[in-house]
Amino acid sequence: MTVQSACWLMKTEPDVFGYPDLERVGREPWNGVRNYQARNFLRQMQPGDRVLIYHSNARPTGIAGVAQVVSAAYPDDLQFRPESPYHDPTSPPDAPRWSMVDVAPLRAFPRLLSLEQLRELPEWQDSPLLRRGTRLSVLPVTAPEYRAALRAVGLDDLA
DNA sequence: GCCAACGTTGGC
DNA sequence: GCCAACGTTGGC
């Protein structure tokens, strides 16, 4: 039986790697996630899942584009690189602790859908993204949330 | 197993 | 740059 593909939101700092960078490179291993809850979400991802790319630590913050998962989860190589800030010397090589997926761009938002605008969408009222203190960098997005976000910027064809 | 200290995230 | 909120660490 076919399962409806899931939707997610992933945060990134545009000064480091933003949606335009994803378009430039065409495909990117989403490495550096070092939070167990976020990792567990990564491991649930399947190729074809949609991903809203959220720019954090930006002015303004908000969703900049929609991407697609193009791999299953696999070990994040940076955990075994001593020179990397994401090195984790306690990760067992035979059972790597941290995972990542590859992501490819799908469509840039014609305009940023800001956090302020997200707060005004009824469908988004229950999203952890809008809750004070939520620091998750990878989180699930419901189908109504996903559709509302795309419609808000006129991308009805992707919703 | 508790919890204080510490580091990080992320909006403002 | 500030600081609230949260996750992790480590002493006990």
UniProtKB/TrEMBL annotation:
Domain of life according to the entry: Bacteria
Residues in EVE domain copies: 7-148
SUPFAM superfamilies in alphabetical order: PUA domain-like
Protein name: EVE domain-containing protein
Organism name: Deinococcus sonorensis
